[in-house]
Amino acid sequence: LFDVSLCETDQSSIITMEVIGRDILSISKVSPLPPLAPKAFEFQLQHKKFTNPSDYELALRLYKEAFSTIAASEEYQKLDFSKSSLVDKDIENLSHALPLFTYLQELNLHDNFITDTGAESIADVLHRCPWLRKICLTANELEEGLAGLDKLQKRWREEGRPPDGLIFDGYPAPIEDMQQARTAGFS
Q1: Backbone angles phi, psi at 114, to 5 degrees
Q2: 64 vs 41: CA distance, rounded Å
Q3: 7, 80, 123, 187: least surrounded by Cβ within 10 Å?
Q4: Structural contact between residues 86 and 113, judged by C-beta atoms closer than 8 angstroms
């Protein structure tokens, strides 16, 4: 049986739904979503209608400022989107934002609806997140042997990340595999 405690994190200095505003989200019945990278936000904003056209520029400027402040803050080394009902499209959007979080070390995506496609989205930006040391993908819809998850595992190993830092159901590898990885230079 998999030990879910591997995905538990110290709750200090984490961007959680409480930081984003769980009360606001529960009142509005909006599902909590990870932040959009400024370019993705701008693209979505272009499809909105504003009564006052200057509000478009204001909204864009304020979002970019807020996003940049949070993403560049050393205070936020962990992102926790566990149990957020995220799907692959949300992970694709998040993958564009991840490289902008310059101090991010841990990403908790436990208990969502992420499939092989979402795993591939993360794999595609992993090289742009050199400080990332732990990703928890337990209780998702991932199957070992599919291309996206295999790609994520391969990139994780190739980049010399901690062998026990990529966590999904049935993984990390058994102790003997982790010891072999350490002797091969992955510590």
Answers
A1: -85, 130
A2: 9
A3: 187
A4: yes
